[in-house]
Amino acid sequence: MPPRRAQIFRFPETAFFRLLGAIYLIAFASLWPQIAGLIGANGIAPAAETLLAMRSDYGWPVYLEVPSLFWLAPKDLCLTALCALGCLAALLLIFGLFVRSSAFAAYILYLSLVSIGQPFTSFQWDALLLETGFLAIFAGSPLLSLAYRFLLFRLMFESGLVKLTSHDVNWRNLHALRYHFFTQPLPTPLAYYLQAAPDWVLDSGTLSVLLIELLVPFFLFFSSRHSRRAAVALLVLLQVLIALTGNYAFFNLLTVALCLWGLDDECYSRLKNWRLAFRPPAAFVNLPVAGVMTLSVLQIFDLQPSLFSSFEIVNPYGLFAVMTTSRVELIVEGSDDLSNWRAYSFRYKPGDVSRNLPFVAPYQPRLDWQMWFAALGSPPQNLWVRTLVYRLLLGQAEVLALLEPPPFGKLPHAIRVQAYSYTFTEPAERLHTGNIWRRTLLGTWLEPTSLASEKP
What's the first-to-final CA gap in the chain, in angstroms? Predict the structure, then answer.
């Protein structure tokens, strides 16, 4: 039997960095028009105020706790500049120019925004992009293919593991998908129809998700190319199905990009006529990549030193560890007389029961997403919602730009937040009424607030 050819990853490396540049471009360009309304001086969670208060309380160590170039000039113009420079670094990656320098710049710039963007930049794909982007700084390392495959392994295996270790009964009895499609933050049109599938189909889908996440990642390290092809195909299929049924920003695209590393040049032999600029191996960057891999192993066993947590070099993963079984939507309403209330309309999250479900990914409307998380808690656990209400009472243009035009000719006297239970209608009911959602009032989530009230 002829000896097996050595695994070479020149093609996946070059293709991956171009795709990573495109994902960085999506991330920065998506955040750019939202940044002022989210964390600008007149935004919902002003970053400058928070940072100055933290520096006053904690002194110089805060620069390590919140690593950001925003410290150099805590102004809205700096937020815009960080997004613009991030787009530039992403474009350089796309065109394969100054790859290591571009990857370093993109990582630092995105870290600068994620570090100060709470609660709107705490999503797992933000952490995944930073971890992926940090490894990209060491382009050319022969260890990079193994490091990225191990990152993909951790992402998928940990996502499956937390579903079992959470002791959530709906993962253990395979009922999770009976609730997922209508309770997820931003369902797509396909999610509506899958929700109506027979229970045995949904339960089979739940079992398939668990098997793919818990077993398939191990095949990424098999020597057999057929095994790795099958593993990559199943992982990509899972991401495509998730993307078709839910809007998860750039998460699915980034995961598919990581899947490129599951196959070596031999597996891409049919694409050999593509002309990509390969970089020669660079052994001098092996040491930092090996260091990151060591931290990755420690992270699996929850032994990672906290020193590195603020730089998001290695992160824990696990989407939907506990499946929500009901959907609560927060509806923001304004009134002039405290009797007649009109609802503000968010651009993408459910509100009007007859509005079509959107396809919005890879763009992420971060306020719409965070409203879903707020509905899982109480006002004291989500103080930023009170600030949102205050900005709306002021008619702050930066915040209003995050929503549809307000339903008032003038600013309302008071605003409240109502909680509703939302479920999908049956297809026959939708055909008759045109409604996608059926909703029931649960009560007042945030009592009426006016400008005469104390500033949040």
Answer: 74
The residue type of 110 is: Y
Q: What's the chain's average pLDDT?
A: 92
**At a CB cut-off of 8 Å and minimum separation 6, what does 341 contact?**
333, 334, 335, 416
Beta-bridged to residue 417, according to DSSP, are 332, 446
Buried b (16+ CB within 10 A) or exposed e, 405-442: ebeeeeebbbbbbbebebebbeeeebeeeeebbebeee
Residue with structure tokens 């006297």? 413
Give per-residue pLDDT as tens, 371-409.
Answer: 999 999 999 999 999 999 999 999 999 999 999 999 888
- Residues in a beta bridge with 270: none
Hey, what amino acid is at 320?
Answer: F
CB neighbour list of residue 332: distance below 8 Å, 6 or more residues apart: 343, 344, 388, 389, 392, 415, 416, 417
Measured distance CA(387)–CA(400) in Å, rounded: 13
Angular region, 406: left φ>0, alpha ψ -120 to 50, beta rest: beta
Amino acid (1-letter code) at residue 40: G
The rounded distance, in Å, linking the Cα atoms of 112 and 133 is 13
What sign results for the dihedral spanned by CA atoms 237, 240, 246, 249? positive
